[in-house]
Each structure stands twice: as C-alpha cells, then as structure tokens.
Amino acid sequence: MKSNEESALKIAEFLLQIKAIKLQPTKPFVWASGWHSPIYCDNRVTLSFPKIRTYIRQEFVNAILEKFGKPDVIAGVATGGIAQGALVAQELGLPFIYIRSEPKKHGLTNMVEGIIEKGQSVVVIEDLISTGGSSLKAVEALREIGCEVKGMAAIFTYSFKTASDNFKKSKCKVVTLCDYDALIKQALKSNYITEKNLKSLKEWRENPAEWSK
Fold first, then answer.
1. Which DSSP helix (H) or strand (E) runs through 21?
2. Which residues pair with 157 in a beta bridge?
3. What is the pLDDT of residues 29-50, one digit of tens each?
4. pTM
5. 133-181 pLDDT, tens digit each
6. Cβ atoms within 10 A of the Cβ of 2, count?
7. Burial grade of 213 (CB within 10 A; 0-12, 13-18, 19 or more)
8. What is the sign of the dihedral through the CA atoms of 45, 49, 54 and 56?
9. Which domains does the chain show, CATH number per domain?
C-alpha cells in the first residue's frame, strides 16, 4: 500500500472518531441543497484536536511540496479553509491570504483579503470539496487579479464526477488528503458501518440526486 493511501485511511479514521464526518445510511441528513445524504462532513472539528490538526497540517505540507512545489503564497477559502491554510502557511514560512465567498459589501469590497502580487504563485487550501463550485470560484478570483494558481489541496472530497469534471474544465489541479472511497473502506474496517450499508453509500455517491428520491 502506498504511504498516501495509508495516510488517507488514517485521516478517515480520525474524522470518524471525532465525528467530523458522520455516516447515517438509514437516517439521512438533509443538505442545504435539499439532497438527502447518508454523510455529513464538518472538518472544522479537527481544529479542536491538536494531534489530528497537526497530522493534517503535515500531510497538507507533504502533498503540496510533492504535487505543486513550494508556492509564493498560501490561500484559504472562507470559511473552512482559513484556519487550515494559516496553519500550512505558518509551517511553510509563507504569506497567507484568504478568499471570501463573495466581495465585501462595504469598505474596499475585497474578495481576496491579504497581500498578493500579480504573477505570484499560490496554492489554495479547502477543507471540503463537494461539486467544486465554491472552491473554483476562489480559484477564479485569484486568476482575475493575475495570480498563478498552482492547484488546490483539500482535506476531503466526496469524489463526485461533477467535481472532477469541473476541475478539469477549469484546468485546476487538485489533491485531497482523504476521499469517499478511503472513508467507507475505513468505516467498514472499523465497524462504523456494515456490509449492508455499503451498497447504499456507494449508490448515493454515484447519483446523490436520485438517491434522495
């Protein structure tokens, strides 16, 4: 097994242990989109656990250096990527900025907060990727001010095909520390779910909108 696969399973176990990710195939959550989902993810919970927070920070650093090389600046996507990004920037000794979900409605009406120069390279940090829409909005905001976006790194992705297509279309490389396949593999191994739940969880990821019905 590759070391990054081992790391993905370890992060999956951490996320399940601290209930940053909850799996309820028989009692689905309702997302803001209206979808019924067997999974709920809030990676901000990791910040409350120093050991887990540090492990994730180091895996971010390793992934960034391996996949993208050291950028000029680290950027976090509001809100979940701000603290994670600041931790990574601190470890790499780099400047940090963050991107709002939309421009401020007063003052300087900034969408990008902090100092970054045209032509500088940047790696964007996210806590979670679902369809990739809000993540790529941040990427475009950086490109519009003349930055070179080397790519995006996230803690977790649901691995929707829509997200993969969106990142390809936007020509943005992405690396994630853990994904849906690693999560359900670890959840089964650790008895968070049963074999009976597995089919339902796989069906949801393939077609969440239809699964909701």
1. strand 21-23
2. 129, 179
3. 988 778 889 999 999 999 999 9
4. 0.92
5. 989 999 999 999 999 999 999 999 999 999 999 999 999 999 999 999 9
6. 7
7. exposed
8. negative
9. 3-212 (3.40.50.2020)
